[in-house]
Amino acid sequence: MICAGGGALAAGKDCPAPVDINHADVAQLRCLHGIGEKRAAAIVAFREAHGPFPGPASLAAVVGPKMAQRLRARVVVTPISR
User: Are 20 and 79 within 8 A, CB to CB?
Assistant: First the structure.
């Protein structure tokens, strides 16, 4: 899989399919097409500041509605255990 920024990440344990945006780290988020280091870090920071994402559409708060829609098929949201 080719990720944003031109770096290739091998499919497998480092690139889950789909990506759980409530549990993924920066490296896993970078597996999403169009998500580079800065956007991945912004997703993690948003999640830490505001709590877990309630659904895939809420990713739009970080990446914008168009990108969130494009990523919808590759993104899942599972609850965070507390």
Answer: no
